[in-house]
């Protein structure tokens, strides 16, 4: 069937029926024993633009408006239904990546973000798994991935804080998604020298801590379960959330202000509800943010061990990623020196260095670090004095 | 980073442990992070690994503690330092109560569990402790084979002095045994088990072991399987049917290898003996009496009838004993085997009763310095059957002074129908003993062949206690009276008070053709020789006298016949002897 015949057939349908039909046509074009030809891919892209996202009209001219909000919802409905009922992982991922894989369009990203949000709230595993593959193939730290992560955070960790149990279960139903999602999230907070200005919301921190603490292999799940990619596609390197979480925990020692007066303030609400009375935080279940980071830190250490214990591939932490911690710590130390404090006596700094030491040591001992390890040790040696770091450096330089 | 200078007197390990312990005070997660780091930094350092373990243990993390302990166990050089903890675990397991260490133990892989238990076994100084731990080990790892434990136990020096070993071996260990390579060892075990359970049932007051005999037979079963014995004989349930079981044992008499007969027979014998002994209580075996005029008993099997409590069990034990002594080889092996048993229940009473049962009177006769009531009763029994009547009566007289205070009741089966030999388990009660004596005295009087009125009169007196058991003799005596036409007994008014006898005598005096002279008024009334109460004399006064005398006797009908008998035998000793 030629391209024009295909399009002709699809033009008989109105939106959204044509989008639904288009998905099956794409399947015919893209799924086969061998990789689709570039011509087939072009046709698929044309169909996507015209019949699914309505970016161009029948003559291929760009349309200004695209989908209206109702059509967006109709499309999201069709997509989640299609993904949920597709019983072949490769087919599903092929279609999903071809729809959203090359994304310059902010409109598409918006649709994908809504789809992701809905999948999270509905615990729709097939969609979440497809999103996990998408995050990995786009690169978890790519602008698109960060945007998607931000959108999910906005929907589920700011606006809605009553869904923790539902969110916690995702770590077991869609671990690849959760793992890649955390990787993206770690890049959103505490990642520049002014880290203190951008801390993750407590709700997010709680859920991530729970995820990692309860599932020691979660952070490796994208490594453990290679994505079923389209024929001929190049798998992107998996970046585990571990390095990012090590950053968080180390820097949290420096940035988290745990004072009771601050903690007892109710969280700032974006929407003010008139009749809502002031609810005191439940003190029995109340965990300080600093304690959450301590727990998360232990969870990270356990995850680092999990690889070795279950004989899994363990190259999960990039040495360079850890090296990038040092300038942040050093700049904090400079501030202290400037104020005339002694570095050995600063508890926050020493806690931070202890955590860095612990994470590096456990990661090295479990063969989790890849990249230039001697460079990592050298960079640790430039950090302010800390007994644990000294022990670790001595130990690994001897080897 | 500045050069390392100060505070180096503390070792790296100690530094990290101290940080972990410090952190443990306020945040367990932080403490664990330190411990995790320490463990990877010093993977072979015992102190650190052990601290990590302790920390998990203190926080009650079963899985983590198990992992820590497993990794500690991974290195052999740690073992000596782990001994205290290993013994804590072993103790926890022994206690059989749910606890942290038991749960932890369950989470440890089997090979390390094995090492833990083996180490605890190897390092227990006390043999008892050692064996207990071995039992624990074998309960968890039966595939290890129980042989070594069994050997240790059986060779334990204290085995004989300390029953705890035997108990551990027999009760705890043997059930774990499914087979044993060495039949010799197994044979020793069977003997141990016999010895233990046999002693247990006689001496243990707690009785906390259920079905000791069944347990003994399950050990026999092991040996039986190995030596291809008849499965019937090693099955406990079959021993419940004593008769059939004994019949099955009997078929083994001629087999060359007498072990099967010996072990099964001895077990069965011990069991029957115990049943007999526990039933027997305060009964003693005596030669008893038969009456050819009574219908023969249906229960009798063989030439000898044994009646009374525990008779059946006694006969089973006795027959089994005979079987185990049926030839020289078996007797010798039996001696060898039983010499290994500490408790020999047959030595107390059973062998004497067995001698009596076999009619070996010389053996059964108590030695002369034994003057207990029991010995005297047995002497009475034997003297009577040896027709040594004077000694018999003298012994009866001696025994009458020793009667127990308990009255008891008449034994219905003291005399059975037939002409065979009859033995009876006589209860040691006043009535039963005196009844037995009276019955014997009647037979003695009968056997003298003396036809004097005095003899018949004594018999009438003596048969009152067991009445109507000797009715046939009574009827015989009445026939004699009718034939002779006269009965002269001056002790009549003193000792004959039984209403039936009085009635019978009145009846023949009144109705039987008025041909009988009954001279039964006491001497004191001076009627003897002058005024005969008879049917022949038409003297009405005489008739009235007789009626009066009878009335007087009937009035005494409620007196204790028992006491009357004792009084009679004791007081009329010279008359009795005179008859003899």
From TrEMBL, chain A:
Pfam families: INTS15 (PF14964)
PANTHER family: INTEGRATOR COMPLEX SUBUNIT 15
Protein name: Uncharacterized protein
UniProtKB/TrEMBL annotation, chain B:
Domain of life: Eukaryota
InterPro entries linked: Int_cplx_su10
Main location: nucleus
Record bears the keyword Nucleotide-binding: no
A GO CC term assigned to this protein in UniProt: integrator complex
Protein localization: Nucleus
One biological process term in Gene Ontology: snRNA processing
Keywords: Nucleus
Alphabetized Pfam families for the sequence: INT10
Similarity annotation: Belongs to the Integrator subunit 10 family.
Protein name (database record): Integrator complex subunit 10
Source organism of this protein record: Pieris macdunnoughi
């Amino acid at each position: 069937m030629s391209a024009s015949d295909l399009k002709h057939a699809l033009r008989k349908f109105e939106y959204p029926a044509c989008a639904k039909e288009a998905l099956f046509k794409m399947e015919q074009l893209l799924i086969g024993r061998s990789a689709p030809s570039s011509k087939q891919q072009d046709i698929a892209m044309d169909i996507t633009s015209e019949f699914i996202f309505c970016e161009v009209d029948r003559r291929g001219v760009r349309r200004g408006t695209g989908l209206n909000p109702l059509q967006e919802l109709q499309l999201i409905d069709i997509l989640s239904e299609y993904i949920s009922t597709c019983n072949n992982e490769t087919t599903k991922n092929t279609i999903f990546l071809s729809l959203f894989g090359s994304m310059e369009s902010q409109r598409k990203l918006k649709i994908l973000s809504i789809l992701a949000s809905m999948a999270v709230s509905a615990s729709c595993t097939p969609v979440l798994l497809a999103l996990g593959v998408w995050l990995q193939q786009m690169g978890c730290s790519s602008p698109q991935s960060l945007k998607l992560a931000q959108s999910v955070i906005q929907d589920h960790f700011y606006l809605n804080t009553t869904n923790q149990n539902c969110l916690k279960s995702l770590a077991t139903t869609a671990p690849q998604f959760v793992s890649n999602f955390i990787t993206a999230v770690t890049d959103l907070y505490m990642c520049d020298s002014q880290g203190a200005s951008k801390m993750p919301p407590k709700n997010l921190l709680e859920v991530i801590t729970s995820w990692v603490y309860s599932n020691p292999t979660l952070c490796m799940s994208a490594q453990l379960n290679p994505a079923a990619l389209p024929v001929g596609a190049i798998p992107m390197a998996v970046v585990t959330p571990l390095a990012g979480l090590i950053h968080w925990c180390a820097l949290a020692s420096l940035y988290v202000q745990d004072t009771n007066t601050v903690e007892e303030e109710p969280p700032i609400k974006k929407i003010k509800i008139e009749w809502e009375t002031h609810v005191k935080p439940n003190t029995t279940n109340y965990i300080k943010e600093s304690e959450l980071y301590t727990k998360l830190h232990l969870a990270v250490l356990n995850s680092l061990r999990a690889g070795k214990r279950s004989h899994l591939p363990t190259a999960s932490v990039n040495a360079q990623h850890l090296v990038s911690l040092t300038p942040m710590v050093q700049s904090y130390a400079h501030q202290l020196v400037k104020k005339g404090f002694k570095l050995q006596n600063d508890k926050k700094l020493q806690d931070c260095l202890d955590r860095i030491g612990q994470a590096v040591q456990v990661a090295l001992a479990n063969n989790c670090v890849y990249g230039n390890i001697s460079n990592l040790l050298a960079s640790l040696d430039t950090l302010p004095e800390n007994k644990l770091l000294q022990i670790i450096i001595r130990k690994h330089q001897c080897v | 980073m500045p050069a390392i200078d100060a505070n180096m007197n503390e070792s790296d390990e100690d530094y990290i442990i101290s940080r972990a312990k410090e952190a443990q005070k306020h945040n367990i997660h932080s403490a664990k992070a330190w411990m995790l780091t320490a463990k990877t930094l010093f993977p072979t350092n015992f102190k650190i690994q052990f601290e990590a373990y302790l920390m998990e243990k203190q926080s009650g993390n079963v899985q983590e503690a198990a992992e820590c302990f497993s990794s500690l166990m991974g290195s052999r050089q740690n073992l000596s330092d782990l001994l205290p903890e290993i013994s804590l675990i072993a103790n926890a397991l022994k206690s059989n109560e749910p606890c942290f260490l038991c749960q932890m133990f369950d989470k440890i892989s089997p090979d390390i569990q094995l090492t833990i238990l083996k180490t605890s076994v190897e390092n227990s100084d006390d043999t008892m402790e050692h064996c207990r731990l071995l039992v624990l080990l074998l309960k968890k790892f039966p595939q290890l084979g129980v042989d070594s434990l069994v050997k240790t136990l059986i060779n334990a020096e204290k085995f004989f002095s300390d029953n705890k070993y035997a108990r551990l071996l027999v009760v705890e260990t043997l059930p774990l045994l499914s087979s044993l390579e060495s039949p010799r060892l197994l044979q020793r075990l069977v003997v141990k088990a016999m010895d233990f359970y046999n002693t247990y049932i006689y001496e243990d007051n707690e009785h906390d072991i259920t079905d000791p005999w069944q347990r003994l037979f399950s050990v026999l079963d092991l040996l039986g399987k190995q030596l291809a014995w008849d499965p019937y004989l090693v099955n406990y349930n079959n021993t419940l049917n004593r008769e059939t079981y004994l019949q099955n044992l009997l078929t083994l008499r001629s087999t060359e290898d007498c072990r099967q007969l010996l072990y099964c027979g001895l077990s069965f014998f011990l069991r029957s003996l115990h049943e007999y002994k526990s039933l027997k209580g305060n009964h003693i075996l005596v030669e008893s009496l038969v009456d050819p005029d009574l219908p023969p008993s249906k229960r009798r099997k063989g030439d000898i009838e044994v009646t009374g409590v525990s008779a059946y069990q006694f006969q089973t034990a006795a027959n089994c004993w005979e079987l185990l002594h049926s030839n020289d080889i078996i007797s010798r092996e039996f001696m060898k085997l039983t010499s290994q048993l500490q408790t020999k229940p047959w030595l107390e009473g059973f062998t004497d009763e067995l001698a009596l049962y076999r009619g070996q009177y010389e053996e059964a006769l108590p030695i002369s310095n034994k003057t207990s009531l029991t010995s005297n009763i047995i002497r009475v029994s034997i003297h009577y059957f040896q027709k040594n009547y004077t000694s018999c009566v003298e012994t009866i007289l001696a025994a009458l002074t020793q009667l127990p205070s308990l009255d008891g009741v008449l034994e219905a089966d003291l005399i059975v129908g037939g002409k065979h030999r009859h033995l009876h388990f006589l209860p040691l009660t006043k009535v039963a003993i005196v009844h037995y004596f009276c019955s014997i005295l009647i037979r003695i009087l009968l056997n003298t062949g003396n036809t004097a009125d005095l003899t018949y009169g004594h018999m009438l007196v003596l048969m009152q206690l067991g009445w109507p058991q000797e009715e046939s003799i009574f009827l015989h005596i009445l026939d004699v009276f009718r034939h002779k036409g006269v009965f002269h007994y001056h002790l009549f008014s003193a000792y004959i008070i039984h209403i039936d006898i009085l009635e019978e005598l009145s009846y023949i005096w009144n109705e039987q053709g008025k041909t009988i002279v009954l001279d039964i008024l006491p001497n004191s009334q001076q009627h003897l020789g002058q005024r005969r109460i008879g049917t022949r004399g038409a003297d009405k006064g005489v008739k009235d006298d007789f009626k009066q005398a009878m009335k007087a006797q009937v009035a005494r009908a409620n007196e204790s016949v028992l006491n009357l008998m004792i009084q009679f035998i004791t007081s009329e000793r010279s008359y009795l002897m005179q008859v003899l």
